[in-house]
Amino acid sequence: MAALSFLCAFVGFFSLAVAMDRHSRTLLRYSIIHLHKRLQQVLGVFSLIASYPIIVLHNGWAVGSITWFGIQSAAAGAVLLLISARESVK
Amino acid sequence: MSSFRQSQALLHSWSGLVVGWVLFAIFLTGTVSFWREDISRWMRPEIGAPIASEAATLGAVNYLQRTAPDAKNWSIYPNDSGAQVYWQPAEDSTEQRRRDNQALVGADGLLLHSRDTKGGEFFYRFHFDLYYVPVMWARWFVGFCSMMMFVAIISGIITHKKIFADFFTFRRRKGLRSWLDGHNAVAVLALPFHLMITYTGLVTFMTLYMPWAGLANYDTQRAYLDALSPSASRLESSENPSQMVDLAPILAQSQREWPDREIGLVRIEHPGDANSRIIITPSSSGRISVKHGSLTYSGTTGKLVHKQNDPTGAVSVYGAMIGLHSGRYAPDLLRWIYFLSGLAGTVMVGSGLVMWIVKRRAKLRGENPGIGFQIVERLNVGFVAGLPFAMTVFLWANRLLPVSLNNRAEWEVHSMFAAWAVALLGSVIRPGRETWKWLFGMTGTLLIILPIFDLNGARSAVASLRSGDTRMFIFSLALVVLGSLFLLAARGVHLHPKPAVSASRQAQKKAANSDVKL
């Protein structure tokens, strides 16, 4: 369940990054769906929100909430590393 | 607005710099303490597979009945290896008996024979008690530094102009830009953790730092502590000896009372007396708060005398904050998240310290740097690269020091500080890239060959895997991964495009050259 929640958060941060002008060129090639910027942001936020109940339903609200924060950090970090790696290859 | 931001930037760099080295040490040793039980088990290779807490408790009682039947009280903490027991010796004990008041006991009631070591507890204690200094001074000093950390985090958030625009930004190989990006990335991405760990760290010692609320409302310290951790009313010793009840049925009964909880502490007051009492407190596993209720049984009849439910309100909030900080409730996955977040915090402090130098070096352009620059440059190498090196030496000392050595546990610690002193000395004599590279390289190499050296011992990765001891296998693996990261760091310093000598040495050279010309 933690993996699913992480995946959800990763998709969320990825979508938010794609919606940013600075990163869109680096990431757009890897994006499965191409949406209008605003829609991309909505998808991102929705995905981040969705990652919460997934982990809370599994771990309980207390430990689940704490884990959720950690998962957000890890997912955002993964997107950051991905972007940074792609940019340095260019 | 911009002048406010500038003032915060100034506050950020100075609050971070002045205590930065201490914070680095606190963060790093605190972070590894999330695995302190595993570190302790790894450092005691003589001790076998984990045992159940009931068996460990019964073994401990067996030991205490033989060793300290006349003690005022016994405290039994069952753990992975056995049970850690403490007792308060009787008033009329000899000096020697007063000092020998703790032991590590196995399920058979015999002393667990393992090498004398402080284990992972050392890192844990060091991160708030330091070492070689009085504990209370250390706690005040660490509290001051934590407060500075809190100031640095908040002023850092205000200073950071583009938290959202730069959220995913890390530009590599761009000098100061990269340092700033990296510092921001580890700070922003794990910001909830940094705020939580700093704040709850301060809360842990709130009764030390801010005792006034307690002093104003309670007449004695005893009354205050009783309100904080309520339990059955105390009984004095009756001086009438009495047969102690068998503990096994009581442990089983406590298990029925609280089915989903494990034993954390069994305390026996006035053992062997008619007024003896057995107090069972559950462990923290699975519960965030570290403040728990307790079950009190009569030591002679075995009847439940008092059931104290988990505290609510202020005490439970206080307990939850301490629990949130120490992460002992956390299952393994969350423990890893804690560990990685802690590493992010360590990198945040370390990169902040390095950035101070990188920023000023860019402005120097070869001119002679001031004394402040030179001190910071040296301390940076000595702490950021020196401490991980020293901690690695601590692990090696655990394997290399002879088992029969007197005060062995102390010598392990001395070895660590000696290694740290050598690293600091090296950084004073020769600051800059060479020492960074050398220390990172040594740390990496030592970490990687440690599991290889261990292949003959009980904690060998192969033996652990064979006996199904996954945790110790992962421990060996983690050493190799960490070592590889340090080697990568050494390589990074080596490939760094800057000239091989540090700015201060460059300037010294330049000054020397100009002297010659004159």
How would you sum up the global shape of chain B? globular
Runs of chain A in which pLDDT lies below 50 for 5 or more consecutive residues are: none
In this structure, how is the largest beta sheet of chain B organized? 7 strands, antiparallel
Q: By helix and strand content of chain A, what is the structural category?
A: mainly alpha
**Span of the ends, CA to CA of chain A:** 35 Å
How helical, in percent, are the residues of chain B?
55-70%
Query: What is the number of E strands of chain B?
Result: 7
Given helix and strand content, the structural type of chain B is alpha+beta
What does this structure look like?
The complex is a heterodimer of chains A (90) and B (518). Chain A is built from four helices and no strands. With 90 residues, chain A is mainly α. Chain A is globular and about 40 Å long. The longest helix of chain B has 33 residues, at 332-364. In chain B, 61% of the residues lie in helices and 8% in strands. With 518 residues, chain B is an alpha+beta fold. The interface between A and B is medium-sized, with 26 and 25 residues.
Lay out the secondary structure.
The complex is a heterodimer of chains A (90) and B (518).
Chain A: H1 2-18, H2 21-27, H3 37-59, H4 61-89
Helix pairs in contact in A: 1-3, 1-4, 3-4
Chain B: H1 2-18, H2 20-32, H3 36-43, H4 53-67, E1 73-78, E2 83-88, H5 95-99, E3 102-105, H6 120-129, H7 135-159, H8 176-189, H9 191-204, H10 206-209, H11 212-217, H12 221-228, H13 247-257, E4 263-269, E5 277-282, E6 294-298, E7 304-308, H14 313-326, H15 332-364, H16 371-400, H17 408-429, H18 433-453, H19 461-466, H20 470-495, H21 503-517
Antiparallel strand pairs in B: 1-2, 1-4, 2-3, 4-5, 5-6, 6-7
Helix pairs in contact in B: 1-7, 2-6, 2-7, 2-15, 2-16, 3-6, 7-9, 8-15, 9-14, 15-16, 16-17, 16-18, 18-20
